[in-house]
Amino acid sequence: MTDQMLDTVRVTLEGQIVVAFVLGIYWHDIHTSLFTGLVGAALTFLVVVPPWPFFKQHPVKWLPSQTSLMGSGIEVDGERVS
Questions:
Q1: What is the CA radius of gyration of the chain?
Q2: DSSP letters along the chain, please?
Q3: What is the pLDDT of residues 30-54, one digit of tens each?
Q4: How far is CA 29 from CA 10, 18, 35, 81, in A?
Q5: pTM for this prediction
Q6: What is the number of other CB atoms lying within 10 angstroms of the CB of residue 57?
Q7: CA separation (Å) from 42 to 12, 18, 49, 59?
Q8: Cα distance between residue 64 and residue 56, in whole Å
């Protein structure tokens, strides 16, 4: 599911780049091209970044870090630094 969603986002961004490029060439205006690309990127950002509830349906269980298992501290050359 995640791979399909990322492919969709990638294709959407590529499509936005092509549309911005074509509009910029058609109107001979770099500002139109940049504005179209920025608006498309902002819309994609609004769709992808917020923590939508359907992303939280199946959370990933991460393993605990080694430092939390052993306690805090850094070991250098066999000696604890902190």
A1: 22
A2: -HHHHHHHHHHHHHHHHHHHHHHHHHHT-HHHHHHHHHHHHHHHHHHHSS--GGGGSS---PPPPHHHHH-S--EETTEE--
A3: 999 999 999 999 998 888 777 778 7
A4: 25, 15, 10, 59
A5: 0.56
A6: 7
A7: 12, 16, 10, 26
A8: 20
How many residues are listed for the chain in this entry?
82
Contact 33, 23 (CB under 8 A): yes
Mention every residue, 6+ apart, whose C-beta is less than 8 A from residue 33.
20, 21, 23, 24, 25
Task: Tell me how far apart the alpha carbons of residues 21 and 32 are, in angstroms, rounded to a whole number.
Answer: 9
